User: Fold this.
Amino acid sequence: MTIIIASSLIYLIVLVFLFFFQRSLLYKPNENNYFNDRLKVDIEEVQIKTSDNINLLGWFHKKDLNKFKTVVYFHGNAGKLENRIHKLNHFKDMDVNFLIISWRGFSGNSGKPTEKGLYEDGKSTIDWLKNIGLSDKDIVLYGESLGTGIATHIAQNRKFAGLVLETPFTSMVDAAKNVYPYIPVGILLKDRYENEKKIKHINIPILVMHGEADQIVPFKMGKKIYEIANKPKYSYFTKYDNHMMEYDEKLVFALRSFMKSLN
Assistant:
């Protein structure tokens, strides 16, 4: 009986800890996998102001706003903009402009990340582009990991040029269950990012990219997102890619081909 009571108390303490500190586990602005990559494409640093008065750092590459689509890149749950340089460098070989923004609480931005807050960050980014003359049909949304939750949310019932989802999850509840199988995350989780429900309300071209070796977001989630997505839809699935997909010639070719199909 003593063992049962002690075990129950420890389990309760773990639940309380996870409830109050869950956002520190989900959002990791200080995590760094930047290996001193150098930008090979010209960018302009911009500041995007949200409706709740937070300034977001962004990198804007303008090749030709009238001729080419503009990719809006929503990054994942960890690190600074520099962590994506190895990806952005490949965009110079594509006929696209791009804007990558850093979330509130990331890259020196004020505020604290939450699901509601990141949706506002994404919406404000689209509004910023519209203020310089772009419309939905000029914009391709690109979500990476956690960023797929924001991209999917914003794409609902809109006529953007296209949507790219790299290592998407069905919902944050499902993803958390994979990491914490013995925790009632369905009850505790505050930020839920329900991609599976929202993908059904998207009717623009979609490219889903995922690797079978993903140890963070199981491949079956990306495959399911692809299966329930509306047409036209395309996939780039690989056998050996982990969560950080390899930006090799095959991936870049798939991405470039998708972008060309939208023009």
About this structure: The chain has one domain: 2-261. DSSP finds nine helices and eight strands in the chain. The mean pLDDT is 94.
